[in-house]
Specification:
This protein is α/β, with parallel strands linked by helices and 599 residues long. It has 21 helices and 22 strands. 35% of the residues lie in helices and 21% in strands. Helix 8 (196-210) crosses helix 9 (228-239) and helix 13 (335-353) crosses helix 14 (362-374). The structure holds NADPH dihydro-nicotinamide-adenine-dinucleotide phosphate and the ligand O=C1O[C@H](COP(=O)(O)O)[C@@H](O)[C@H](O)[C@H]1O. Residues 76-85 have a biased composition (Polar residues).
Length: 599
């Protein structure tokens, strides 16, 4: 790959450049000696990765055709990146060289989107793969396969995908040509999800494209959860790579509760090693969620304040201004707590509240996330409010109720809104309410983290604010989407001869600061999976800890058939959310006037 292309790839997808410091590479003791240009005792050889960076091939043991090892790289320029991982078999090919000097063999990656005919594949996965191709982030040799039961062929798959591909607004050169080139690398295989024969046929087709290269295979399970294990079985038994790694990305939902999640994990682990399983939570791939650790751990001004001593409460807010349109069938079986809170918001909370990890290595970060999740108080119904949207007419337009969705039973009590107060019973966070709020069909589409600080002790300017603590205190807002921004509300003097105080935002507004499009979360996560970087994927013990917090509540809500509080489509949600916050002396930050919040 050419230098220019590599540079743009590294820049555009810097899950990488901002947060993967050299420390990230050195976190694993096995790899500590594997540094830039150094041929260490643990390095079998130095190789060039497909982003052109040198990396160390390390010794690994082979475990029955399953992925056994990943390698890390040290970059040519000293900045750290994760490398194209090297499987044990890949290594053995490389290590089987003359005079102990490795001869690199060409590698290829085949990405199979299982459930290629579906909504997520069309909306997110194929466009993300194209974006990676466009940015020069995919290896030189790659193939994309769509797999599903629908009767399609290569041409109809290409036609389906072509309507969804877009180029970055800020770099549209050769967009059409690039799309054509990409589509030529896309193929389709129709088969059954539980048929090893179908996957065997797929494997043959993959092999035709792979030739005698080291063949790495990634399967993206973009299918309903009841066929996850079937596909894991068939892909593992009939379509695993013979000489490279095989990895499987699994979409949520990872079960409905602790038991079903454990059963799914058992099922997957019958056919795959934990290190082959990439449980995706696409919120972890969002730019500002990635930036959370950078903000905390690379700025002196934040981390010292990050505790009960200075923080009054923290709020994690998700809202959508549309209902379940088209996804009611799935949604009704899960509800908003399982759809958004137990995964997306809880993952962000864990990153927010964890102790500083030993390094940025995936296992170090995930260890800290598990610890903080396990320090949390199990949720109960007293600390939760549930709601469901009802129909509403505004400006002559009728917005339907949740139960008017044809795929939803008309007596459904599934929550489309929930607010919850959570607590972390550890030394850092004792007594600090962590509030979550998530809802569909609300007045706005937004995801944000709000950190409300305590008041200034003995403030000299107390009189200027009166008794309104929210007026007087600082608030840090991390707006994940839309219009990404990080801003800190501060108090300042209004210029002039008098002494009047004002509230202003110190703000990092991404659109003003960076003249480039922010990559979609799926791009970052797909690239990470290809590179064997697991930091942004959920480990099974994290998942267990997350379910342990929510399962008793979910069971209780279902057992007691708790009726959700109805709220009008397009409103701010049920009033019960305000009472819940008030119980802990908190006011939701997103209810302050829009003007004081805009950046
Ligand atoms: N759509 C979204 O925005 C999001 C989706 N997800 C998750 O991603 C996965 C895929 O989502 P999505 O694309 O919306 O799902 P779809 O309902 O569109 O299903 C994907 C494909 O799976 C096949 N399929 C559908 N129903 C069944 C069934 N009952 N048994 C076997 N195969 C079936 C269909 O392909 P065919 O009939 O051709 O085989 C379909 O095209 C799911 O696990 C979902 O929960 C996660 C986050 C967001
Ligand atoms: O996982 C899910 O996420 C989407 C919201 O994702 P976003 O990236 O568009 O914010 C949500 O609509 C869906 O219900 C849920 O399953």
């Amino acid at each position: 790959m050419e230098q220019a292309t590599m540079a743009s790839c590294a820049q555009a997808l810097s899950s990488s450049s901002l947060s993967r410091s050299p420390g990230a590479l050195l976190g694993s003791s096995r790899l500590t000696l594997c540094t830039r240009g150094v041929f260490s005792p643990v390095c079998v050889s130095m190789r060039k990765g497909f982003r052109g960076r040198s990396f160390c091939v390390i010794r690994a043991s082979v475990t029955g055709g399953k992925e056994a090892e990943t390698a890390r790289l040290a970059t040519n320029d000293g900045s750290a990146q994760s490398a194209s991982p090297v499987s044990a078999k890949d290594e053995s090919r490389v290590a089987g060289s003359q005079n102990g000097v490795a001869v690199a063999t060409e590698t290829t990656v085949s990405i199979t989107v299982v459930g290629a005919s579906g909504d997520l594949a069309k909306k997110k996965i194929f466009p993300a793969l194209f974006a990676l191709y466009y940015e020069g982030c995919l290896p030189k040799h790659f193939t994309v396969f769509g797999f599903a039961r629908s009767k399609m062929n290569d041409e109809s798959l290409r036609e389906m995908i072509s309507g969804t591909l877009t180029c970055r607004i800020d770099q549209r050169e050769n967009c059409g040509d690039k799309q054509e080139e990409f589509l030529k690398r896309c193929f389709y295989h129709s088969g059954q999800y539980s048929s090893e024969e179908s996957f065997g046929e797929l494997s043959k087709k993959l092999h035709e494209h792979e030739g005698d290269r080291v063949a790495n295979r990634l399967f993206y399970l973009s299918i309903p959860p009841d066929v996850f294990v079937d596909v894991a079985r068939c892909s593992s038994l009939a379509a695993s790579s013979a000489n490279g790694w095989t990895r499987v990305i699994v979409e949520k939902p990872f079960g409905r509760d602790s038991e079903s999640s454990a059963e799914l994990t058992r099922g997957l682990k019958t056919y795959l090693n934990e290190d082959q399983i990439y449980r995706i939570d696409h919120y972890l791939g969002k730019e500002l969620v990635e930036n959370l650790s950078v903000l905390r751990f690379s700025n002196l001004v934040f981390e010292p304040l990050w505790s009960r001593q200075y923080i009054r409460n923290v709020q994690f807010i998700f809202s959508e201004d549309f209902g379940t349109e088209g996804r009611g069938g799935y949604f009704d079986n899960y509800g908003i707590i399982r759809d958004i809170m137990q995964n997306h918001l809880l993952q962000i909370l864990a990153l927010f509240a964890m102790e500083p990890p030993v390094s940025l290595d995936a296992e170090d970060i995930r260890n800290e996330k598990v610890k903080v999740l396990r320090s949390m108080r199990v949720l109960d119904t007293d600390n939760v409010v549930v709601g469901q949207y009802k129909g509403h007419t505004r400006g002559g337009v009728r917005y339907p109720a949740y139960i008017e969705d044809k795929t939803v039973p008309n007596n459904s009590i599934t929550p489309t809104f929930a607010a919850a107060a959570l607590f972390i019973d550890n030394a850092r966070w004792d007594g600090v309410p962590f509030l979550m709020k998530a809802g569909k069909a609300l007045h706005t589409k937004r995801a944000e983290i709000r950190v409300q600080f305590r008041h200034v002790p003995g403030s000299l300017y107390k009189r200027s604010f009166g008794a309104d603590i929210d007026q007087a205190t600082n608030e840090l807002v991390i707006r994940v989407q839309p219009d990404e921004a990080i801003y800190l509300k501060i108090n300042n003097k209004v210029p002039g001869l008098g002494m009047r105080l004002d509230r202003s935002n110190l703000n990092l507004h991404y659109a003003d600061r960076y003249n480039r499009e922010i990559p979609d979360a799926y791009e970052r996560l797909l690239l990470d999976a290809i590179e064997g970087e697991r930091r942004l994927f959920i480990r099974s013990d994290e998942l267990d800890a997350a379910w342990a917090l929510f399962t008793p509540l979910l069971k209780e809500l279902e057992k007691r058939k708790v009726a959700p509080e109805l709220y009008p489509y397009g409103s701010r949600g049920p009033v019960g959310a305000h009472y819940l916050a008030a119980k802990y002396n908190v006011r939701w930050g997103d209810n302050s006037s829009e003007t004081s919040d805009s950046v």
